[in-house]
Amino acid sequence: MQTINSSHTNLQQLMEDNREVAQSSMEYSNKIVQCFTDDFDELKTCGQKNERRMDTITDTLSLLMADISLVNSQNQEEGSKVEEYRKESIQLIEELKTLLMKYSKKQALLVTILAAIV
């Protein structure tokens, strides 16, 4: 009978030890799950912040590209105007050259006439 009582006591102690181990394992598992949940929430928050940053960067790049396109258009317009002004200037210089040549010829003719008179 004492063996049965001893076995019963040992069995109860083993069950109690197993219960404590199970309880400890459960607490440890809960801590791991809580850490995982906290880390996951932190990663989720970081991901949302990164998405907002990417949206801001994308918006900024879109605005920058629009500005570059506008500047390119303005540069092309200005380049066309500069070319037009260059052509007009060349034409005016040619006209001035022609007028100066006519004036020089008239001046030379006048000098010749004055020389012949004197």
Describe the structure.
This protein is mainly alpha-helical. The protein is built from one helix and no strands.
Describe the structure concisely for a colleague.
The protein contains one helix and no strands. By secondary structure, the chain is mainly alpha-helical. The longest helix has 116 residues.
Using only C-alpha atoms, the radius of gyration works out to: 50 Å
> Helix segment count?
1
Order of SSEs: H
Weakly predicted, low-confidence segments: none
Query: What structural class results from the helix and strand content?
Result: mainly alpha
Major beta sheet, specifics?
Answer: none
Helix fraction bin: over 70%
Mean model confidence by pLDDT? 89
Q: What global shape is seen?
A: rod-shaped
Distance between the termini: 169 Å
Strand residue percentage:
under 5%
Q: Give the number of DSSP strands.
A: 0
Oligomer designation: single chain
Give the SSE map.
Elements: H1 2-117
Keywords:
mainly alpha; 1 helix
